[in-house]
């Protein structure tokens, strides 16, 4: 990072102070616009298979059943893949506001607000108000945080927990820090453990260990937090649910702790996954995911770092900056997730989200000196709005053309618009998509082609969703009894009239 990044406030002194104040005043407005823009597609865009509707259906079942211990994959099948915190939040939102795509997505947006607030707290303590505001803008407008803020995922809740812990640790090390931060470290661990499990401890522990080794201030680290009482507090919050979940559905602990946290990462084609499909990516792909997830700001930070390495005076400033205790925690916190998953092939791009709040602070520290000089007026807003506007425009395209989505939402809407349309009469030929389960409110059912005969001779019409390649055989078999009502890129909706009508 440039030398000025060591003391961000110094670079904004007079005569540039008034300009810096104007710039700083616009940063939060831009960040607020970014977060408000996310609300638009949250309300309008249907969920596409597979992740969003899968988690949304789990939350819907929790709200419907009133079972707040075991998340259910489908009635009778427990969902052992994730702890319940995100589902508690989503099911609670459904209970409060009713079932709607916006309702189920809202907890992720609120979690991201919490992450932004924590990032602002840490950045402004380290470099002043302008650094805090620039950090918020950078983080809010990064690709993955922007997408995650409006999606039904578990990762925002994990990131809320890990960010709380690491920010609390950093602030607890300051002289005269409020005592609440010392306990917030352990509250963050509890949030992470209830959001995604022991991975939270790893993603917090790696930066803490790296900071301790780099600083060699183990005594200060030990004194900064109430380790024994705090760990007991975390256990009292977390362990009761883990015990209750195992007692209610025996086998949960073996699957979740051993399968999801060991076999998944050492075996790229792990066949034990009960709820999804394994991802076999080349080793090291997580760093490419980090680049995508941090757009456009990650590449900006890489350019700033490259310039520092290529210029002797800046290299010297960079070496001096590495003596800063704050940077010695920010750097491992930003890159710990990518480092941890470097040797794993079973990965998703969302896995890097916990490091992005700290990467945003690093990039902000490098960029802040540029705000001391009037840039072109469109530069900062253009960079900040690039990803949010692109994602929003793509989303609005699919709002206007929902048939292009990998979603059952428009098909179910077309069914329910018919005079006798009822999701309870919908059968899906072949595997039932998660979006069909969610949008039919559990009414749609999967059926095999050899089971159709038992349903077609009744007195009531049935509705069948099938791939177009399967339509010809049914037309040959049932002829005029078939009425086509909807077609999209994946499926056709047909009404099969009762025998009595023919």
From TrEMBL:
Residues 47-256 form the ArnT-like N-terminal domain. It is found in: Cell membrane. It is a multi-pass membrane protein. Keywords: Cell membrane, Glycosyltransferase, Membrane, Transferase, Transmembrane, Transmembrane helix. InterPro entries: ArnT-like_N (IPR003342), LipidA_mod_glycosyltrf_83 (IPR050297). The chain crosses the membrane at residues 27-45, 106-123, 135-154, 183-214, 226-244, 286-305, 326-343, 380-400. This is Glycosyltransferase family 39 protein.
């Amino acid at each position: 990072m440039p030398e000025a990044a060591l003391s961000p406030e110094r670079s904004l002194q007079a005569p540039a102070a008034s300009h810096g104040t104007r710039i700083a005043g616009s940063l939060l407005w831009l960040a607020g616009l970014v977060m408000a823009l996310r609300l638009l597609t949250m309300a309008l865009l249907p969920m596409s298979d597979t992740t969003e509707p899968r988690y949304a259906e789990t939350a819907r079942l929790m709200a419907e059943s009133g079972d707040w211990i075991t998340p259910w994959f489908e009635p009778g099948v427990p969902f052992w893949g994730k702890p319940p915190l995100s589902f508690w939040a989503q099911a609670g939102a459904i209970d409060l506001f009713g079932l709607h795509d916006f309702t189920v997505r809202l907890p992720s947006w609120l979690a991201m607000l919490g992450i932004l607030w924590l990032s602002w707290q840490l950045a402004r303590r380290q470099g002043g108000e302008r650094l805090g505001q620039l950090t918020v803008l950078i983080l809010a407008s990064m690709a993955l945080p922007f997408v995650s803020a409006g999606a039904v995922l578990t990762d925002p809740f994990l990131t809320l927990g890990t960010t709380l812990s690491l920010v609390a640790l950093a602030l607890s090390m300051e002289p005269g820090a409020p005592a609440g931060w010392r306990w917030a470290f352990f509250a963050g661990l509890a949030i992470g453990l209830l959001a995604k499990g022991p991975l939270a401890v790893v993603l917090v522990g790696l930066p803490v260990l790296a900071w301790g080794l780099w600083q060699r201030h183990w005594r200060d680290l030990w004194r900064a937090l109430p380790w024994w009482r705090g760990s007991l507090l975390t256990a009292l919050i977390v362990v009761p649910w883990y015990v209750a979940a195992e007692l209610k559905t025996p086998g949960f602990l073996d699957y979740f702790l051993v399968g999801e946290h060991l076999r998944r990462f050492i075996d790229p084609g792990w066949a034990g996954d009960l709820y999804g499909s394994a991802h076999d990516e080349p080793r090291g792909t997580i760093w490419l995911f980090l680049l995508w997830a941090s757009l456009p700001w990650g590449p900006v930070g890489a350019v700033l770092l490259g310039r520092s390495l290529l210029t002797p005076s800046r290299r010297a400033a960079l070496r001096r900056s590495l003596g800063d205790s704050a940077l010695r925690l920010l750097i491992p916190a930003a890159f710990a997730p990518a480092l941890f998953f470097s040797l794993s092939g079973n990965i998703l791009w969302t896995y890097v989200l916990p490091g992005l709040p700290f990467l945003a602070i690093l990039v902000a520290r490098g960029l802040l000196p540029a705000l001391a000089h009037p840039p072109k007026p469109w530069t900062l807003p253009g960079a900040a709005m690039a990803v949010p506007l692109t994602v929003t425009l793509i989303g609005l395209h699919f709002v206007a053309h929902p048939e292009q989505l990998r979603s059952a939402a428009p098909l179910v809407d077309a069914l329910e618009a018919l005079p006798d349309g009822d999701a309870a009469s919908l059968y899906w030929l072949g595997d039932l998509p998660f979006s069909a389960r969610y949008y039919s409110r559990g009414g749609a059912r999967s059926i095999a082609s050899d089971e159709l005969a038992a349903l077609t001779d009744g007195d009531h019409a049935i509705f069948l969703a099938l791939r177009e390649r399967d339509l010809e055989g049914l037309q040959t078999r049932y002829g005029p009894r078939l009425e086509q009502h909807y077609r999209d890129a994946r499926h056709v909706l047909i009404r099969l009239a009762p025998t009595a009508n023919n």
